[in-house]
Amino acid sequence: MLQQFDPRNATIKVWVGQGLVSREDAKVSVFDSSVQGGDAVWEGMRVYKHGVYCLDRHLDRLEDSARAMAFADIPSRAFIKAAIRETLEANGMTHDTHIRLTLTRGEKITSGMDPRLNQKGSTLIVLAEWKPPVYDNTKGIRIITSAIRRNSPMHLDSKIHHNNLINNILAKIQANQAGVDSALMLDNLGFIAEMNGTNIFMVKNGTLLTPTADACLHGITRGLMLELAREHGIQVEERNISLTELYAADEAFGTGSMGELTPITEVDGRQLVNRSGSALTQELVKLFEGTHQKWSMPIDSL
Question: Which residues contact 65 (CB under 8 A, 6 or more apart)?
C-alpha cells in the first residue's frame, strides 16, 4: 500500500524554524543535526474535524524525547502550538490532515557529532499534509517477519522517538521485496516488538494482548487502545508474545497515528482465522472513533 501524492499538497506552507515558507523553500541547512546524524525527535499527529488529536500527549513525548537526547534548547509548548495553528490555518486544513512535527538539535557551527557544536538553537518543523489514514481498516494488511531486530534499551532505547529510523526502513524494504504491506520486527530475544511503523495487538479467546513496551515505541494510539479496552471491560495483557502465538491469533491489528487501527489478515503467509467468532478489532475501531471529539484540541484554541 504505497501512499499517493495528493495534488493539494503541491502548494502547502511549511513551518521551518521561525516561520512559514513555501513547500519549495522548506529546507534545513546541510549543517543541521538531522542531516548530519538523524539527530532529531518527531511526532506524527492527526487532525480531525474536532481538532488536533491527543496533542498534549504528543507534545509530552516530544519533550521527553528531546530531554533524553539532552537538547539544550526546547521551544515552549505555547510556541509549538502557535506554529501548528498558523500552519494549519495557512493551509486551510481542518480535517483529513497528518502533521509530522520535527524538532532537530539545530545547525552546527562546523560538521561533527559533538552537540556542543550546536550553538544556534533547535529547529522546529511543522509539516502538515492532506492525508487521510493510509490503510483501509476494513480490508486489512499482510505482513512478514523481518530479519531486522527492533532496538532494545541495551542498544538504542525505542522509547526515544528519534529520527534515526534506518532499522525500520530496512525492515520495510524487506516487506516491499516480499510483496506485503508491512514488516513485523522482533526484539533481541525473539519476541514480537512491533511493526516497522506501528505497534501491534492480537486477540485470543476474547483477550487483547500486546507486547510490553520494552523494545517498541510507547505509541499514543497504543496507549489509548489499552485505556479504552480496560474502560469497556475487555481483558488486556501486556507481556512477551512469540510468533507462535501470533500465528494462532483470532485477530491482530496495528495501531498508529498514520493508519489508526489496521487489521492484519496474514502473517508470514499464514491466514489469521477467526475461530472464536470474535470481532474485537472492529469494536475497538468504533470505540476509537468515538474518542475523536473527546481527545482533540480545537485549532482555534491552540
Answer: 41, 159, 160, 161, 162
CATH architecture of 141-289: Alpha-Beta Barrel (3.20)
Average pLDDT, the chain: 94
Residues 6+ apart with CB under 8 A from 129: 6, 9, 12, 97, 98, 100
Q: Within its chain, how far is the Cα of 154 from the centroid?
A: 22
* Model confidence pLDDT, tens digit, residues 49-95: 999 999 999 999 999 999 999 999 999 999 999 999 999 999 999 99
Q: What's the CATH architecture for 8-130?
A: 2-Layer Sandwich (3.30)
Question: What is d(CA 294, CA 255) in angstroms, rounded to the nearest whole number?
Answer: 19
Query: What sign results for the dihedral spanned by CA atoms 138, 205, 195, 153?
Result: positive
pTM flag (> 0.85): yes
